[in-house]
Amino acid sequence: MQKKIKVVHLVNDLVPAGKEIGILKLVKHLDNRVFDSSLVVFRGIIALDVNDLSEYNFVCLNKRQGNDLKLPFKLASFFNRHKPDIVHTHSWGTLVEGVLGAKMGRVPIIIHGEHGTFPQTPLHLLIQRFFWNRADVVLSVSDKLKDILSSAVGFPSERIQVILNGVEADKFYHSDELRKLFYERFNFSFGDFIVGTVGRLNSVKNQQMLIRAAAELKNGGESVHFVLIGIGERREELEELVRQLDVKKNVHFLGYQKDVNLVLNGMDVFTLTSFSEGCSNVIQEALFAGIPVIATNVGGNPELVKDGFNGYLVDSNDHKTLAQKILMLKKQPELLGKLRENALSLSHTNFSLKKMVDQYSELYIKAYQEKVLKGVGYVFQG
User: What is the pTM of this model?
Assistant: First the structure.
């Protein structure tokens, strides 16, 4: 019987954020008749329900804060015992220790993936270029991010492969019943126009821009509700801005919500005001729910949001244009409905989870054929 291809994914933390959730989706949906997948978590598991991890094979190394010089040796020991065929590092947080550990552990294949934000000091860029050159494959989650990475790091663009994120259609979908439930659960009235966002409350996500747009609309006499879904270190700062701009009745912090599809269906418009993005999972999820998206024109957002088709793109920190686009959709329900239809059709065509998983599967098998089987070939016997 042909052996399974053993793949180990390295993550810094397991948190309810786009990159980590995307990795879990990939591991869950890879064909377990072909792949033996596992996760190595460097630091810990934060705000994830235990049930969400019950079907995964993972180990936590309890890395101490800051640089842990022992970590590459711990990884090498783990790899020597478990003998993976592929180690897949994700982002800066696992790059250095992961590549060093894989090299010392004589792992045949090293794949490194970038998902969005990355450090750009001269020293960081030098280190990234050095370690990317030690990987067999470097991945990006969008074409735009690929160009940014290549230019910033000084790494050949042709050596970076792109695989877009994908969405589970059975978990994210349009539902009038969920919309009604959202209104009931969070005490909104039917007829309220609701604009929302989902993401960690941190500096990169720039929810301040959304709050300033709320103030712009309120000062213009418009009644629009803004809901912020997520937790993070900037909540107090954002709440203070809400008080300063006198939009407490318009801006609602709903905290962490496990059922993201429920809250997406409650929105008329989804917004993402980030300074930086790779391939935003939550934009894709909003589109699967049939929600038009207004996003900043950064990273991979233009590959997901087609301006004027399924949403709009605005410049970073341009809260006035953001407010204008929101008002336009509020005032023109037929336009809003058309963008909803387009959101649904485009998302299912371009951003399915099956497409993403198939591309990763092909990549892993091809690398295994070339590096482990030396071109003999790998044919799965189902």
Answer: 0.80
